[in-house]
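Hi,

I'm pasting everything inline rather than attaching a file, because the server keeps stripping attachments. The sequence lines come first, and each chain or strand is labelled.
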Amino acid sequence: MARKYIKAGAALLALGLSATALAGCTGASDEETEGGDPTEITMLVLGDKPTNGRLEAMLDKLNERLVDQVNAKLDLFYVEWADWQTQYNLQLLSGDDNVDLITTATDWLFAWENAEKGAFLPLSEEMLQEHAPKTWAQVDGDGDWDLTKLDDGQIYFIPEDNFTQYTNHGFFYRGDWATEAGFENGDITKFEDFTKYFQWVKDNKPDAYPWDVAGDPSADLTGYLQGHTDGQTIQQVSAGNYYPFQTTAADPNTVTSWYMEGDELLAAAELAKQWNDIGVWREDALNYDGDTREELYAGLSGADQHHTQTFIGQIYDNLSKKQPGSDPKFFYWGQENGNVFKDIKTHGAMAVSAYSAHPEKALEVYDLLRNDEESYRLINYGIEGTDYIITDDGKLGFPEGYDSSTDSLGSNFWAGRMDELELDRVTDAPNKAEIYAGLDAVAEDYPYSTLLINKDAIDPTLAAMSGVFSQYIPQLAQGKFDDPAAAIAEMRQALKDAGYEDARASIQADLDAWSN
Amino acid sequence: MSLKEAAPQRRSSKEEEPQQRRISLWRRFTSSRMLLLMCLPAIAFFVIFNYAPMPGIWIAFTNFNYRDGIFGSPFVGFKNFEFLIKSGQLWLLTRNTVLYNLAFIVLGNILAITFAVMLNEIRLKYFKKITQSIMFLPYFISVVLVGVIAFNLLNYDNGALNGIIEGAGGEPIKVYSTPGAWPGIITLTHLWQSTGYGTIVYFAAIMGIDRVLFEAAAIDGATAWQRIRYVILPSLKPIFVILLLFALGGIMHGNFGLFWNLVGNNAALFQTTDIIETSVYRMVMSQNNFTTSTAVGLYQSIFGFAIVITANWIVRRMNPDYALF
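And the predicted assembly:
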């Protein structure tokens, strides 16, 4: 008897193994199913997959519409935030033919590299005109297809070019505490003035950290550098988590680095040391991985940092509700000297996978998500009445009892939002228009949107430089070096040894070729 | 007998031999088919996950792109290995990795053998079982949790350790800014996690020792210590050597999870805590560059391979019975 079971078990095991091995050999069918069953289109999105059921309910409803209009159904594939950079690239590397649409971006999702490496399907003009006509017309009208072409002149992705966003980072802080600290109306207008604010929080709010930080706070360095130089970062080149190359407004055709040149880095590091000595952050912030934004909402932190949208869409509403009277304020980097850039228009983009079995259908689905008001609202806001409501004055509001931390849709469609279909939200910061107007007045267009950098030539150097940066920058940003000047000199030498000059020269050559 | 005369004889024996061999091979196969079936998952595992992907190391010498695939992408020689040297970290990383592993191997084995011998001396069955289970438990605790526990114990602002020190009127200590403390902390944590597992292996080996030897020792009037010294320890030598050789093969592979969760991105500690894996993870995780990480993997494997071959050669010279091959 036992023998029989063992035999059966072994046979099943062998069958299972061979089935697993063979599974890799089966290819997806290329057949289009016009008129037949709806085509399944899968879109890769970034973020943690929601588990509250709202997403599935929305997709059911959206799919009814997609089936009606283009005989297709949409499913979302999530690359979750844990280790997302590796997971995202691995997903593309694996050549998974189960994904049709891929969320990408040139500044944070490796769009150029992945296009060069053949992960994306080149999109012909005819294909776009036929299967995504509205998208084609709008991007073409704005003259933005050039932002998505490689040297071969082919289009590799569709830019989210019609959605206003300023990704300028800055400090979120409490106006009520700043007022008590002696700032008129609670407005802090200089980076260095945060020392006074932080000191006041330290002295008067014993339960709170002046700025609770989890992990690498290098935003304070870049924030300082942006506000004290005319450096403009070349967004296409990163070394690990750092963006080492800049040009200056005075000399936009020369590649330089604010980490390598000038005294501002030292001034920023000295300020960070001063903050560290005050006790602005936890002593062991580099190893702390708590949710510091929740600490801010709980009144246990005097500041947080992120970009404009985060302040307008989340911080203002949450902080003012959870800490009544806290008067949330935003100080954006570069506010002092107007050194602010509009976001690169390919900060969000959508590519079609080179392995997609249904690229045309994928484009048809995307065209609807982007341009059809009902589909747009479903994918971005969810089901009216459950996930959102439209208020009498036409704003996007939320039903009674809605809690954004547990009820949010989480569809994370960041690759085709459109200004004309966007709704103002009741939770938006009331001074949204004022903040946008302020940014609009000074922000310049990012000048290097179409600059292609030859990464092959400099990849080993960038990897080596990222090793050096990850050694020095977190410690400089947290003021951990007793002698910041000596540490900076050491770091600069190490970067030179890693090949900084060669990489700079290589990017300079790309810039020269591009500007001529 | 001349060669010519001998020839037919040799041929005839040759004709018989394969027949016999075939039969005996088949018989051997059928008689141990259950054993072979039980090996199948392990064989499949190694074929699928270790041998089949092996040609993939070619990627370390290419400028990989999805379109041309692993073998079609342009060959770039040793360019992908450059960054380790350029970053100026190669020596530090190799030194840290090797030293940590040596500490883990030496101390781990000594502790595991000591505990296994002690367990063997315990006569109370329940106590023995409970001790064994308690020692084994840390092996199953996720390193993520270990990292969290360590942070809660050791952090400056509200860690338990500093709570006790301050309670006793002392000055709090900055453990997370003291590189010198971490080789000890990491080694201790590793031992805490892995000793139970090693103990079980050695304990099983002790259980396998022929009881006759113990009886003979008892008749000869051996004390407990003499029994350990002259019976148990020599019997453990083969398994010790095998485990040592296995461990040496992975000497360039650190316990990434443990290091990453204990130290994370704390650059102040890198001098004493950075191992190849953690450093490479930081350098290439956001570079979208698989070729460089494959290159490092290859460097580690070749280094490990050389060490195993050398160690095995030394073992064979000393005692051929103990060598792996």
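Confidence is low (pLDDT under 50) at residues 1-33 of chain A.

If the labels don't parse on your end, tell me and I'll reformat.
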